[in-house]
Every structure is written in C-alpha cells, then in structure tokens.
Amino acid sequence: MQEPGTPAVATAHARDTPSRDALVRVEDLTMAFGSKVIQRDLDFEILPGEVLALAGGSGCGKSTLLRHLIGLQEPAKGRVLYGGQDLYTVDEEARTALLQSFGVMFQAGALWSSMTVGENVMLPMQVLGGMDAERREQEARFKLALVGLAGSFDAEPATLSGGMRKRAAIARALALDPPLLFLDEPSAGLDPLTSAHLDELILHLRDDLGTTVVMVSHELESIFALADRLLFLDAQTKTMTALGPPKELRRNGPEEVQRFLRRGATPVGKEDPA
C-alpha cells in the first residue's frame, strides 16, 4: 500500500522526456502564508509539449501553486527553475525575460473593461513586445482568429459570453508566442458544449502548435480529455501524493486519488481560496 505523503509516479509514457529537457523544474517547494503551510516538499517537472493538470480537493493549494509558478508569490522554501534559472533569485533583467517565456489566463479572464478586446490582446505586445502599432494589430487579429474570435477585435469585453471571454484571455496569453501557457480553471462556469469547444482549442494549441499547457482544474471531463499527466495535491498531508497519466492514476493511484478521479471534486465556487 502507498505510504501517506509519498507521491505515486505512474509509469512513463510517450510524452515523458529526460529531465534536462524540462521547461520548468520545481524543487523542494514549500508554500505558506506566514506560519500556515499550504503545501510542502513539492518536486516535479513541466515537460515540453504536454498538458499538465494541477488538481486536488478543497483547499489543497492549486491556485497558490499557480501563483508560485508565475512569479506572483515567493516560496517559503525551494526553487522554481526556468531553464536552470531560479525565477525568484535572478536579476531584474533576467526575470523580465523569464516572465516573457509564458502566458497566463486567469480564471475570470481578467480582461480590462476599459479596453476593447483587441486592445487587451495588444497590451503585452505594447508593454514587452517592442512592436509598432501596425504589427501589434496584425498579431492581435491573428491571435483572436486562432482562438475562434476573428470578428471580436473591436468588441467590448462586456459584450462577450463567458466562453468568449476565456478565449480572448487565451489570445492575450498567446500574444508574445510563449512556449508555455498557464490556465486557471479554463472550463469553470461554462456549459458542457462551450467547455468541450475550449478543450478542443487547448488540444489544438498542444498538438498543432507544440504549446505546453499547465492548467488548474476541478473538471474531471476536461482533465481526462486533455491532461497527459496529473499532479495531485492532498489537502490533508499538505504535499503531492500522485503524478502520472490520469487514467492510470484512476486505476492504480493512491486511494484518495482514485476516489477523487471517480467521484469528482468540490465545485470551484466553494473551494478554499488557497
């Protein structure tokens, strides 16, 4: 039987690559708010061309881990390495370069209501891309077309449906052509058909563009449809207890992971903010 707190690493599969090829390495990471430890001893890699799902029950720290991965919250202990560089100890110039190597879609989209959809997508290019106005518009229109929003460049965010806002947020995350995307609950609050269309978009990004995707999700249907590997965070032991293909973990993972993958998780609206 699996010892509590010991990660169950499922057997290797076709997408696994040597660790030297990892886009990101997380080493001995502890996350905490003051004296309250959220998760400890996290060790894992994000591999090129995969979809990695971050999952777990209520209060396990999925969103907190995402904030650590994108530079918004400094670890209490451990390192987040991009190409061997620690995101939290490099100098400002190197940190800026690392931040441009990934895009982020936040759960609610986080589009600026005072800007059009096109202006939202162009914003990263204006701040970091060094492009002239004509090139920014061309790139923004292309990214919107890529996510199925070709006619929304001049639209106001408030006029978009929930699924369209998420697609627009993904277009903005793709603005600088990053090899890595972080998606926070991409399917949350969407109807099943819209969620399925968004899943198809994520698969297109991975399979056709080679984009690596890390997604926080509680939606089992999306996890099984998209994820090459699942990282399970346990709220009780406060550490990762499984890492591997979701279907394999459902069959052979630790008992609590099998239970989670068979029965579902706490609805996102009731999840602890951590």
TrEMBL record:
<keyword id="KW-0547">Nucleotide-binding</keyword>
<keyword id="KW-0067">ATP-binding</keyword>
<dbReference type="InterPro" id="IPR027417">
    <property type="entry name" value="P-loop_NTPase"/>
</dbReference>
<feature type="domain" description="ABC transporter">
    <location>
        <begin position="24"/>
        <end position="260"/>
    </location>
</feature>
<keyword id="KW-1003">Cell membrane</keyword>
<dbReference type="InterPro" id="IPR003593">
    <property type="entry name" value="AAA+_ATPase"/>
</dbReference>
<dbReference type="InterPro" id="IPR003439">
    <property type="entry name" value="ABC_transporter-like_ATP-bd"/>
</dbReference>
<dbReference type="Pfam" id="PF00005">
    <property type="entry name" value="ABC_tran"/>
</dbReference>
<dbReference type="InterPro" id="IPR017871">
    <property type="entry name" value="ABC_transporter-like_CS"/>
</dbReference>
<dbReference type="GO" id="GO:0005524">
    <property type="term" value="F:ATP binding"/>
</dbReference>
<protein>
    <submittedName>
        <fullName>Phospholipid/cholesterol/gamma-HCH transport system ATP-binding protein</fullName>
    </submittedName>
</protein>
<keyword id="KW-0813">Transport</keyword>
<keyword id="KW-0472">Membrane</keyword>
